[in-house]
């Protein structure tokens, strides 16, 4: 017999469980509800067969009377559709008293231990379908991730931003310090790069008059992997005309407070043993001040290298002062930024797209923001002068790993870009924080993994 192609008009299991609340033990309602899902447990008691049915919303017990519906030819992992009456078993378990049962798809492979779930970390990452199938907390984690992204969209849409899409394949990569993935278009007969950021294309749209834009999408960086780094990751970037970095500070604080409440019901999160409260206002500290607190601020490359070496930091890979000062900040300051903190006023050498400070042109109107010792994102008052941007590109090209130029972007700026505040937010890291997950691989459905074959 061919299995049905559809099972319409079904309810969510959570809704049917809710309908059983007023029922006394052993009672049932005089109404029919339809459910579909996967059978994850089977128990038999005389002519009664009890099945546990699971869908995205939850789990419910099916009470199948073989005297009424015939043999229950159902195996663990089968997908079934049922019709019946909301009920409670004699022990008070929310249930559905089944009148009809239809096999929708057979499970042909043995399931992992249904009591312990799927516990092998590598298997969970490599076979995410089994992880989601067996582990309720994994399903809830990715529902949380979806709530986070939906909440971000609601906030930005309500503030007059429009969501846009920019190229993933780019003739030039730009917008950050990073190594790109390189590919080739046979048709165009040219090398292309997987984008490392959406920044330069989004700012072209500001030039074009869209004024407030954002994109939530994948970026790619051909670099190291760690508990907070993956070669493929999800970023939010927004750009707002007629705003500067202080406006952007206020906006990110407001957005993250709202997102936390909507996604998890509270602004308090626990991550890697630290409890943090995302409620605004956040602590704000200057970049130089943060390094001075560790007696590590100097613009002398040799002096800084010596200081770091004295403290046991390997600086062999740091080829110039910008890399050294970034290493010093990442090693000594960032891990200690436990409460939500905004660090502002970065040196111009570290900030190729940030406008210089009105007080000192050796520093920029840039900030990074942190919680529980982890960077969540980065923001600027953007450079909106074409000649200044070209000069900064030229300066960067002199630095090791510096950001290379983009003539078309400079040309776009030559038509005039309004004063603009821009921001990037790591979606994966935000979900890690709100879910209390220690590694980025937990919050990405299909993380990149080393081939073990």
Could you describe the 3D structure shown?
The chain has 453 residues and is an alpha+beta fold. It is built from 14 helices and 18 strands. The protein has helices at residues 13-19, 66-69, 121-126, 128-134, 136-158, 199-207, 245-264, 287-292, 301-310, 321-333, 386-397, 407-414, 427-435, 440-443, and strands at 33-45, 48-55, 58-65, 79-88, 94-105, 162-163, 169-170, 182-185, 190-194, 212-220, 232-241, 268-271, 274-277, 283-286, 341-344, 366-371, 374-381, 420-426. The strands form 4 sheets. It has an 8-stranded mixed sheet with strand order 6-10-11-18-17-16-15-14, sandwiched between helices. Helix 4 (128-134) packs across helix 5. The longest helix is centred in the first third of the chain and has 23 residues, at 136-158. The mean pLDDT is 95.
Looking at this protein, list some descriptive labels.
453 residues; alpha+beta; 8-stranded mixed beta sheet; 5-stranded mixed beta barrel
Ranges with pLDDT <50 over ≥5 residues?
A: none
Rounded radius of gyration (Å): 27 Å
Averaged pLDDT: 95
What is the approximate shape? elongated
Strand order of the largest sheet: 6-10-11-18-17-16-15-14
Tally of extended strands? 18
């Amino acid at each position: 017999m061919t299995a049905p192609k559809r099972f319409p008009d079904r309810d969510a299991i959570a809704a049917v469980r809710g309908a059983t609340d007023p029922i006394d033990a052993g009672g049932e309602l005089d109404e029919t509800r339809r459910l579909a899902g996967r059978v994850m447990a089977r128990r038999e008691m005389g002519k009664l067969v009890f099945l546990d049915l699971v869908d995205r919303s939850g789990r419910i017990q099916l009470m199948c009377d073989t005297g009424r519906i015939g043999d229950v030819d159902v195996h663990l992992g089968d997908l079934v559709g049922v019709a019946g009456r909301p009920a409670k078993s004699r022990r008070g378990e929310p249930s559905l008293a089944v009148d009809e049962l239809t096999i929708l798809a057979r499970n042909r492979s043995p399931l992992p231990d249904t009591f312990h779930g799927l516990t092998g970390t590598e298997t969970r990452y490599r076979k995410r379908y089994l992880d989601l199938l067996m582990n309720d907390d994994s399903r809830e984690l990715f529902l949380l991730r979806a709530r986070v992204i939906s909440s971000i969209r609601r906030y930005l849409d309500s503030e007059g931003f429009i969501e846009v899409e920019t190229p993933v394949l780019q003739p030039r990569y730009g917008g950050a310090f990073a190594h790109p993935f390189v590919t080739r278009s046979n048709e165009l007969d040219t090398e292309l790069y997987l984008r490392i950021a959406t920044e330069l294309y989004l700012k072209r749209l500001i030039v074009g008059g869209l004024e407030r834009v954002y994109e939530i999408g994948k970026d790619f960086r051909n670099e190291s992997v760690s508990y907070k780094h993956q070669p493929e990751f999800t970023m939010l970037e927004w750009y707002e005309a007629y705003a500067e970095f202080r406006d952007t500070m206020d906006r990110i604080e407001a957005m993250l407070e709202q997102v936390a409440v909507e996604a998890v019901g509270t602004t308090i999160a626990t991550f890697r043993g630290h409890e943090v409260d995302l409620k605004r206002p956040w602590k704000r500290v200057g970049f130089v001040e943060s390094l001075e607190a560790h007696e590590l601020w100097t613009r002398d490359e040799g002096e800084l290298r010596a200081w770091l070496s004295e403290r046991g930091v390997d600086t062999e890979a740091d080829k110039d002062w910008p890399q050294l000062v970034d290493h010093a900040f990442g090693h000594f300051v960032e891990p200690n930024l436990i409460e939500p903190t905004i660090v502002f006023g970065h040196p111009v050498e570290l900030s190729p797209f940030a406008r210089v400070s009105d007080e000192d042109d050796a520093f920029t109107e840039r900030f990074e923001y942190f919680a529980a010792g982890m960077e969540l994102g980065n923001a600027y008052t953007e450079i909106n002068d074409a000649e200044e941007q070209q000069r900064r590109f030229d300066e960067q090209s002199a630095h090791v790993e510096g950001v290379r130029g983009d003539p078309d972007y400079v040309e776009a700026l030559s038509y005039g870009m309004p004063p603009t505040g821009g921001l990037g937010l790591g979606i994966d890291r935000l979900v890690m924080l709100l879910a209390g997950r220690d590694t980025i691989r937990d919050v990405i459905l299909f993380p990149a993994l080393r081939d073990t074959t």
